[in-house]
Write a structure and sequence with these properties.
The protein is mostly helical. It has four helices and no strands. Helix 3 runs antiparallel to helix 4. It has one domain.
């Protein structure tokens, strides 16, 4: 049975993947940027939907399925953002209930 390939992998040190990486910024900065970016994406989806509806009301050539797709995407993005908020709030409340 040929195990030469398996032995070659044994020489890889898994710690090397973590030791050579630069230090990340202070905790919270990256999460805050990620959260702000997610909220901006939800806002952009809703703005795109509103723009398409406005164009349709003006009488411009807009396909109905494009409007429905944009509306559904905006609704799903908002629902996801709301669920993430709810989970974060539940986690915060759970931490606050912990006895020290």
């Amino acid at each position: 049975m040929a195990t030469g390939g398996i032995r070659a992998l044994g020489s890889i040190d898994p710690r090397s993947a973590y030791l050579n990486q630069p230090k990340q910024a202070a905790a919270g900065g990256d999460f805050g940027k990620m959260l702000a970016s997610a909220i901006d994406q939800v806002d952009q989806a809703q703005s795109h939907r509103d723009d398409l509806v406005t164009e349709m009301v003006r009488g411009e050539a807009v396909e109905v399925h494009d409007i429905m797709t944009a509306a559904e995407e905006a609704q799903l993005a908002f629902d996801l953002m709301l669920e993430v908020r709810n989970k974060l709030l539940e986690g915060y409340q759970e931490v606050m209930r912990m006895q020290v």
